[in-house]
Amino acid sequence: MTTIEDFQNGQILLIDKPLEWTSFQAVNKIKYALINKVGLPKKFKIGHAGTLDPLASGLLLICTGKFTKKISELQDQAKEYTGTFYIGATTPSYDLETQIDETFSILHIDEELIHETVKQFLGEINQKPPIYSAIKIEGVRLYEHARSGENVEIESRKTTIHEFEITRISLPEIDFRVVCSKGTYIRSLAFDFGKALNSGAHLISLRRTKIGNYLVENAIDVNLFVNSLK
Q1: Which of 137, 175, 206, 216 is within CB 3.0–4.6 Å of 168 for a Cys-Cys bond?
Q2: Are 23 and 48 in contact (CB under 8 A)?
Q3: d(C-alpha 187, C-alpha 93), whole Å
Q4: pLDDT tens digits for 57-112?
Q5: Whole-angstrom Cα distance, residue 59 to residue 222?
Q6: For residue 143, is pLDDT > 60?
Q7: Given pLDDT bands bounded at 50, 70 and 90, which one contains residue 155?
Q8: Residue 13, SS3?
Q9: What are the residue numbers of the active site?
Q10: Which residues are registered as beta bridge partners of 202?
Q11: Distance between CA atoms of residues 86 and 68, nearest Å
Q12: Are the C-beta atoms of residues 151 and 53 closer than 8 Å to each other?
């Protein structure tokens, strides 16, 4: 049984974040459960190592106590994702948060073109974050600019795609597995992949399966973790 001292000395909790939860909500749920059920002080340290969008599920590393010092190191680890691109349509958010704004032909797309296009994204690439993201420009988050209808110039960033595998093709859907560096936006990868196919694409599902050597198979659902506390 994990004690108050264990959490204060430091724990890395492997949490399987549910769909439609923010990472902040998951951390808060666990924080208040540890305060109310375990007896930790209200100001004990807790945080997560890498945000997951509400429309993504999967591995969220939550650090407590002295292990919050490890957050930066954990965030730098390579991450693995699986998910699905929808080919032939784009959305402003590059995922299902917003409605389709443009459609494209997919009649010219076949398996050979898909696998050839994957090669363009391996290694170090330039990527623009989505306008619907939490990055701040002049102190305001990008999604706030987007929701107010403002046009903001976003600079591209270098990121690295270590592995990019297509696991299912059933157009207009394509399933994938990606291993990438810190700061990679899989939504942007979906958008750019669609453009490279001379079409369009957006992300319709995403699951983080690995961070460094930590696996989602070893993670626990937020509510199960909270219910396990005594």
Answers
A1: 175
A2: yes
A3: 8
A4: 999 999 999 999 999 999 999 999 999 999 999 998 899 988 999 999 999 999 99
A5: 11
A6: no
A7: confident
A8: strand
A9: 53
A10: 86
A11: 37
A12: no
